[in-house]
TrEMBL record:
<feature type="binding site">
    <location>
        <position position="179"/>
    </location>
    <ligand>
        <name>Co(2+)</name>
    </ligand>
</feature>
<keyword id="KW-0170">Cobalt</keyword>
<dbReference type="GO" id="GO:0019251">
    <property type="term" value="P:anaerobic cobalamin biosynthetic process"/>
</dbReference>
<protein>
    <submittedName>
        <fullName>Sirohydrochlorin cobaltochelatase</fullName>
    </submittedName>
</protein>
<feature type="active site" description="Proton acceptor">
    <location>
        <position position="179"/>
    </location>
</feature>
<dbReference type="GO" id="GO:0016852">
    <property type="term" value="F:sirohydrochlorin cobaltochelatase activity"/>
</dbReference>
<dbReference type="GO" id="GO:0046872">
    <property type="term" value="F:metal ion binding"/>
</dbReference>
<dbReference type="Pfam" id="PF06180">
    <property type="entry name" value="CbiK"/>
</dbReference>
<keyword id="KW-0479">Metal-binding</keyword>
<dbReference type="InterPro" id="IPR010388">
    <property type="entry name" value="Anaerobic_Co-chelatase"/>
</dbReference>
<feature type="binding site">
    <location>
        <position position="242"/>
    </location>
    <ligand>
        <name>Co(2+)</name>
    </ligand>
</feature>
<feature type="binding site">
    <location>
        <position position="210"/>
    </location>
    <ligand>
        <name>Co(2+)</name>
    </ligand>
</feature>
Length: 298
């Protein structure tokens, strides 16, 4: 009877890229809290997809002085694993139905790699079905969705209204810096920019660290908008390294430096999307949808 009960155990894995900045852990931990609050009877594990970030936290785990200076950092951050490790631990504990929800923005290479790992584990078939490591595995969509993402985009447009209001209050153009990549999923950024402009009737520019639209695209649009003030924010889950360096660093090629040289009065805001409760609510809905589509009861 006990073995039978174990075969139906369900768990959730929250997969984030991660961050090395203690101050920017807040949106990740907030999402973890939201998921646990929504599903109090389901164990939730955190995974970081970045190898570099995981190694950094593992190194800090052995640094007694660092841990003493940062007493608020949860133990699970120091021992965080990738999604493979998190799912392996859950399987070893008897959980055979897993829902993985990424805290990622687009269906780009990071999401595709995550999907490859999750789908590969879910596809394992043993000679006897009862020994399969997983009965069901589900993967939630990223924030900007995959193929049928217009409804998600509209939801994000509504969730970003506080940013619009903040820019409008100081008569500034809202500029978002997304991560992007050089290979895929850039169209969703263009769509989001168009929808934000149409919904709120004010100039909004989205540029990316990698790929197009880039900072030069943003500069061209700002020149056409004839604006002199810019509210600059990261369109990323956390305001981590890219926000502090590529977006608003002291280097000559940072967006802040470039825009100030162009004559704009720039106000950078170090606030990731994950700090917006309405954005986190979208991720919760995506988690729910993934479970339902896989017929996994949470």
């Amino acid at each position: 009877m006990k073995q039978c009960e174990q075969e139906t155990l369900t768990a959730i894995v929250l997969a984030a890229f991660g961050t090395t900045y203690p101050a920017t852990l807040e949106p990740i931990l907030a999402m973890l809290h939201d998921v646990k609050e929504r599903y109090p009877d389901v164990p939730v594990r955190l995974a970081f997809t970045s190898n570099i970030i995981r190694r950094k936290w593992h190194e800090r785990a052995g640094d007694a002085n660092y841990r003493r200076v940062h007493p608020a950092i949860p133990k699970q951050i120091y021992t965080v694993k990738n999604v493979l490790g998190a799912m392996a631990d859950l399987q070893n504990e008897g959980y055979r139905r897993i829902v993985v929800q990424p805290a990622l923005i687009v269906d780009g290479e990071e999401y595709r790699d995550l999907a490859a790992y999750v789908e590969a584990l879910g596809a394992i078939r043993t000679s006897k079905p009862q020994w399969q490591p997983f009965e069901k595995v589900a993967l939630g969509k990223p924030l900007l969705g995959a193929f049928d993402h217009r409804e998600q985009l509209n939801g994000l447009v509504r969730a970003l209204k506080p940013d619009i209001d903040a820019a409008r209050a100081v008569d500034a153009t809202l500029v978002y810096m997304g991560h992007g990549n050089e290979h895929m999923a850039q169209g969703a950024y263009y769509e989001l920019e168009i929808l934000l402009r149409r919904a709120y009737g004010m100039p909004v520019c989205i540029g990316l660290v990698e790929g197009l639209p880039d900072v030069e695209t943003v500069r061209e649009k700002l020149a056409a908008a004839e604006t002199r003030k810019v509210l600059l924010k990261p369109l990323m889950y956390v305001a981590g390294d890219h926000a502090r360096n590529d977006m608003a660093g002291d280097e000559e090629d940072s967006w802040l430096t470039l825009l100030e040289k162009d004559g704009y009065q720039v106000t950078p805001v170090f606030e990731g999307l994950g700090q917006n409760p309405a954005v986190r609510a979208i991720f919760l809905e995506l988690l729910k949808q993934a479970a339902q589509q896989a017929a996994i009861d949470l």
